[in-house]
Amino acid sequence: MDSISLPVIHPTFEKLKRSGRWLHAAAGLLILSHALSHIHRQEAPPLYFWCQLLISLDIFILVMAGRDLLLLPRVNLFFRLVEIIFFLGIGLLMLLAGNWLIAAVHLSLSIGYSYLFYCERSLRKKELLSLHHIGISVPGLPAGRFFLWSNINDIQPYYDSIRISTSDRQELTFDLQKNLTFSQLEQIHEFCRHYLGKC
Q1: Closest Cα partner for 72 from 113, 20, 24, 112?
Q2: N or C: which terminus of the chain carries fewer CB neighbours within 10 A?
Q3: Cα(187)–Cα(199) distance, integer angstroms
Q4: Kindly report the CA angle at 163 between 158 and 167, in degrees rounded to 5?
Q5: Do 133 and 146 touch, CB atoms closer than 8 A?
Q6: Which tens digits make up the pLDDT trace of 100-121?
Q7: Is 119:111 a contact under the CB 8 Å cutoff?
Q8: Burial tier of 39 (Cβ tally within 10 Å: 0-12, 13-18, 19+)
Q9: How many CB atoms lie within 10 A of CB 90?
Q10: Rg (CA), the chain
Q11: Which of 72 and 33 is assigned the larger pLDDT?
Q12: Do 71 and 20 touch, CB atoms closer than 8 A?
């Protein structure tokens, strides 16, 4: 009996994927407003303004290009990295200038976007539910979880979803990205019979 891994649709992952467009738009708006606030300041070099303007326009073009482009993991991660670097740079500049409140806001945004970057990076790797000989690993944010067979009460596999009941009364339901084949369904039933004594 070999381990089996099933690609699942995790609700939190899907929500994060769909929110990418709005998060990029919010970042673009903040960058553009910051650029416009520095347009007539004597102490701000013109290059600083033009860099911010180009980054914000670049992000707006990405948002307008469509949702499908933002769902590509590498494109999304690249722009998330640009946003992190931008907010971190502004935060550090404001900190050096003595503007504590503005620095704190921008550094907080940088930390928030770093967390999103970490979560989105793990989306590509961890959207799998796997049944192993020692237990079951399920996807989650910020990290997946692993349940030993002794912590599993029941597994109910269907062709299009799988439901797991744990010993601490959690009900985990995952829709599958593609329907199970008969052999996969039988393999899951075999795991249940061997480790749970039912199914």
Answers
A1: 20
A2: N
A3: 11
A4: 145
A5: no
A6: 887 898 899 889 889 878 877 7
A7: no
A8: exposed
A9: 22
A10: 23
A11: 33
A12: yes
